[in-house]
Write a structure and sequence with these properties.
With 330 residues, the protein is of the alpha/beta class. The protein folds into two domains: 149 residues, Alpha-Beta Complex (Quinone Oxidoreductase, Chain A, domain 1); 139 residues, Medium-chain alcohol dehydrogenases, catalytic domain (Quinone Oxidoreductase, Chain A, domain 1). 27% of the residues lie in helices and 28% in strands. It is built from eleven helices and 16 strands. The longest helix has 14 residues.
Length: 330
């Protein structure tokens, strides 16, 4: 089968399409999918980030989420049959056929097409962790998303609105903010700097937000803390600014009874990663199925054009997901 491999050469991640990779057989607890769509994620193409697991000089499979038809079922798997439509997080997603842990597999709603299904799992489960499992966002709460035009930010906006929350978002692109306001963004703040506290205070009547999401990094961390309400929560999910250190107002943390938490799967076991999937299926799959939580696919690229898809992602002009289509020959 054809499949992509990525190699770290002196800090540059090089992609190559191979046409002689053996098709894998599903082991115990696994499904084999014919890949129909696979979402791109920025961390896959940042050397040393960890999503792709590439080591210097070693070609590794690439891609972390996919959707497709079930081809074969491993021992001990129940509830799935060949021909079923499935989506989920999986390693080596940029390939004609992919293996997925059955604990991570989710059914594709009938109304959802393949590109949408290929764009759901990774970001969706990260946002579910932030908003529901750790963030405990409630109807009527205010949410702040620093970097709302990012992939995680857009997903968080759409999910929060489906949950009945109100959303303040920051972005350096006024054009992207205008598009997001059409999708329900309540307060748009055009900035890349840590200068949004005044807008948050004005929108919330001086109370602050129940939950803040920092997708930017250390440059806005302190401002996100300042924007929190009493017993507010802050989710640390990204650091595209490259700043891994920030000041923390200990007095605010103490007096306002704040909670700070990280959102990452890097150190979690497969069992720990899979624990959120049943809740996601129960809570959010109905919202995806009936369109209350839309999936925004910005661009769809043919299987042979992963390099072009990667370039589009690195140009950061998209709003929503960039998706790689399955091979037309599979």
């Amino acid at each position: 089968m054809r499949a992509y491999r990525m190699q770290d050469i002196d800090g540059r991640l090089l992609l190559q399409l191979h046409d002689d990779i053996p098709r894998p057989d599903p082991g115990p607890g696994q499904l084999l999918l014919r890949m129909r769509a696979a979402g791109l994620n920025r961390g896959e193409f940042i050397a040393g980030h960890g999503l792709h697991g590439a080591k210097a000089g070693v070609a590794k499979p690439v891609g972390t989420e996919a959707a497709g038809e079930v081809l074969a079922i491993g021992a001990g798997v129940q509830g799935w049959k060949p021909g079923d439509r499935a989506m989920g997080r999986c390693p080596g997603a940029f390939a004609e056929c992919v293996l997925i842990d059955s604990r991570e597999a989710m059914p594709v709603p009938a109304a959802m097409d393949w590109p949408q299904a290929g764009a759901v799992a990774l970001t969706g489960l990260v946002v579910y962790d932030m908003l529901v499992l750790q963030g405990r966002l409630q109807t009527g709460d205010w949410l702040l998303v620093a970097g709302v035009s990012s992939g995680v930010g857009v997903n968080a906006l759409l999910a929060a609105k489906a949950m009945g929350a109100k959303v303040i978002g920051t972005s350096g692109s006024a054009a992207k903010l205008a598009r997001l306001q059409a999708l329900g963004l309540d307060v748009a703040v055009a900035t890349r700097s840590a200068d949004f506290l005044g807008a948050v205070q004005q929108a919330t009547g001086g109370q602050g937000v129940a939950l803040a999401i920092d997708t930017v990094g250390g440059s806005v961390f302190a401002e996100c803390v300042s924007a929190l309400a009493f017993q507010g929560r802050l989710a640390m999910v990204g650091y595209v600014d490259g700043l891994l250190r920030a000041e923390l107002d200990l007095q605010a943390l103490h007096a306002k009874r704040l909670q700070l938490f990280g959102v990452s799967n890097k150190l979690r076991t497969p069992q720990q990663r899979a624990e959120a999937v049943p809740g996601f299926i129960a809570d959010w799959l109905p919202l995806l199925a009936d369109g209350r939580m839309p999936v925004i696919v910005d661009k769809l690229f043919a299987f042979e054009h992963l390099d072009q898809a990667r370039a589009a992602m690195e140009a950061a002009e998209h709003l929503g997901k960039i998706v790689l289509s399955g091979s037309p020959g599979n």
